[in-house]
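Good day; I would like, with your permission, to put a structural problem before you. A protein sequence and the structure tokens that stand for its backbone fold form the material at issue. Thank you for your consideration; the sequence and its tokens are set out here:
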Amino acid sequence: MNGDWNTYHASPAAFKAMWKRVVNVFRRVIPQDAFTKNRIQFVFAPNCIDIGIRMEKYYPGSKYVDWLGIDGYNWGAKQRWVSAKTIFDKMLKRLRKLAKKPVAILETSSTSQASKSKKSAAKKEKWIADAMKYFKARKLRMVLWFNEMKETDWQLFGPGASGSKKISVAGRSYRYYAQFIKALRGKYWIGGSLANPRRVSDKAFRGR
């Protein structure tokens, strides 16, 4: 909402009114029992920098928010190479002053485009390792990676990824970044599992 590419950025008052209306509709229409509270959460997630109006102007109030979140990327040579700390730290401090809520990174990734003429899987690998350490040190409760080939090679794994390792699945070859898998095998993060898709507990879903 705090970015001028969003059609709804121009009016914080209208944004807050819309947010409260949506939350109130959910609470009025859907029974507010344990099942609902463990499966529907409302996340206030600004961009990592304000482009236009400051994000605090859009905050609808803690009564209407379950989680806080941030979006941010390392664009590499398209802008400049920056660490996760540089991307997120200032906004993270502002969010934690705004409310006492669990905090998540709602969109992030890094390019491997280290310079205009060169990609570096090794440099992206290090960025991932440092980012995962940073997220853990800041006690972030959830991280969502943008695993797409779009403006650049955001992928962590997949046919288009420039990862450091390779794996074959069902006759297809995929590359991936080993540091991401290494971080997920630690005790802090809960990785995905085909054997048990619902590994996240109700408590963890609420950011506790």
User: Anything to note?
Assistant: The two ends are 26 Å apart (CA to CA). Helices lie at 12-29, 34-37, 84-98, 121-137, 178-184, 202-205.
